[in-house]
Structures are given as structure tokens and as C-alpha cells.
Amino acid sequence: MFGEPGFMSDNHIMPTYARADVAFERGAGARLFDEQGNDYIDLLAGIGVISLGHCHPRIVAALKEQGEKLWHVSNLFRIPQAEAAAAKLCAMSFADVVFFSNSGAEAVEAAIKTARKHFAHAGQTRRNRIITFAGAFHGRTLGTLAAGGNPAHLAGFDPACPGFTQVPLEDEQAVLDALADDVAAILVEPVQGEGGIHAVSDDFLRFLRRVCDEHGLLLIFDEIQCGMGRTGRMFAHEHAGITPDIMALAKGLGGGFPVGACLATAHAAAGMTAGTHGSTFGGNPLAMAVVNVVLDEMAQPGFLEHVKAMAEQLDAALHDLATGHADIVAGLRGRGLMRGLQLREGVANTDLVAAAREERVLVCGAGQNVVRLLPPLTITGEELDEGLARLDRALRRLASQH
To answer: pLDDT at position 249, please?
Structure first.
């Protein structure tokens, strides 16, 4: 019971995470420092969140400045900072309108609601089913769990929310077979993150766009993890030369501050009128002060070129690691600075994550026995080299144990 002798303070946190026994005290760029002062190279970036590195000076300054002025007023009033951020997002994307939330799951929920409301608004209330794909991860709410369809994530949370049909990824015929007069939209991650760092082919994304156009459906991209410069383009779908009707963003959008966004064309969002959706905290001045800085930094000349250069450096180094540790690494996955090492059967990704942590480099696991690398987009070549040298030592440590 709470308060018993010997009850540790961390036991007051609901045990929904298998946390590593390390606590970080401060960070700078791609480095973190634990309570004992040990430095770590962060190739995880809070699972793709710390897009501009830890404690970016402009973000810190904006947060301090806004924090001394105004934190929250609610969406009962205009929020100029949100208006500015929305205008920037629309200018750099396909979108006409933006809804701000606090997380990626909320952004995907807003995307789902936008698609369903679009057809209800048009008097087509039967059209509410959404086609999704095996290996997807769209969040931990009941709705986004159902969209993801992962049995392990759904276990114990029955009944699953209806309205989703899942088909194999990259299977054009399965998509066509799933079409019916109740389908409203197709929802896909251009690069699956939790599912194993699987970059969906540009051809398949273009196929989905054609299907949606031919059948009057809405195309929704979940770019929570792969968006905001992560793949070397501002948005991952740009590689395919197409645009969605609706898109969910989060993670890197706030550079560490909790924020999400649902972007849409005016046509797709036609049903989202006053009172149809809301968020108490979404788009508040404090969050928007940070988002505006992140967007401004990412719009700077040379920002995406730096991401591409670091991605090329990472790609070459990972190929060397895969070749040098072929007994452990079965292959490479991903795009840009969203990469994965697929490990061979019999070598658990959790073991490599732990070995890497012992060498003071941070990575994390993903589906299909993949180890995920999501470094800050601002990582330097020197930081990347040092992190990969530590990862090489972790692979050697792991090899000696097998």
C-alpha cells in the first residue's frame, strides 16, 4: 500500500512503462547528462521529439519570454501565436486549416473525426469506415488503437472501436478489395515508426492517392514521427510527389514541448464547424511560442540540407556497421534520420538497446525486432560519429555474449 516503509517514490507512478534505471539531469544538442554527470550521445531524441536538440537556445528564450507573459487563456478567445503557427504550417504544406492538440494521438483522432465529419456534413453518413494497414501505430487512445489494429496493444481494452478495416501494407489488391460504399478514407504512415521503421514505397503512396481520387475518398497521412524534416523533406510524403487531404503531426513539431496538429484542406475540413471538436489546452500561447520557433528554424536556408547531409553520413556508417556485424544485423530500414537496424533471429533488440545504453548511446526498439535511431535533426557530424562509435562497441559487446 502507499506509505508503507520501503515504498519507493517511483512506485507512485502507474507502472505502464518498462523504464531504464537512469535519470537525466540536463542536455545540450545531441548530448544528455545523467545524475552522476555521465554523458550520453542521444540517437533517440525522446523518440523523435527533440528535433532541434536539447535546450536549443531560441526555444529556451521563447519559452522564458512567453512564460513571463501568458500561459493559457483557452480557445474561447483568439490566440495570435496559434494563428501565426497555423499560417506557417499552411504555407509550408498542402493545408488550408490547422487544429492544434497536445499530442500525436489527439492529432490522429482529429484527423479521423475530420474525415468522418466531412461525409456526414455532405449527407453521406454511411461513409465512416477507414482503411488502415498492418504494422501501423497511430496512438494509444481507444480510437487510434483500433486504427492501429495491433492485437498486443488492444488486449484488455475490448470492445475495439468499430469503423476500421486493416489490410496488408503495399498490397494494392487488398486495398481495392476493401473498398465499399461505406469507406470514407485511407489512413497510412509514409514511414511506419513503431511498426519497424518501414518506409512505404513512393509507388504505393501514389497508388493510394489515385484510389482516393477515383473513389472520392480522403487520404490521411500520419506523419507524427516521420514528418517535420525527419526524412530530409519537411514532410515524408513529399518524396512521392503527392499530397494528402488530412495530415497529423506532433513529436518534432514542438521540439520537446507537448503539441500536436491536424492539418487539412478546406474541402476535407468542410464539416469541422464551431462546436464539432475542441481542446482545452490545444494551441495555448506557451506551446505556440515554441512551435513558432521550431517552424522558423526549420524554414531557415540550409536546415534540410543539413538533415540530408547527416542522413548520408548515417547511412554510410550504418552500412559499415551492418557489414562488420553481419552476425547480428540482418538489414537496414528507414529514410533520412529515421533509421532502423533489423536484427537477426535470436538476437533481441532489447539486448542491443541495453548494451548501447551501457556504452552511453541512446537508441530504442521498434516492431519486427528493429532497433530505432532518431537523432536530433541538428546533430553534428562529430556527434554522429561519436554516437555510432559507441553503438559499434555495443554491437561488439553483444556479439561476445552470443
So the answer is: 98
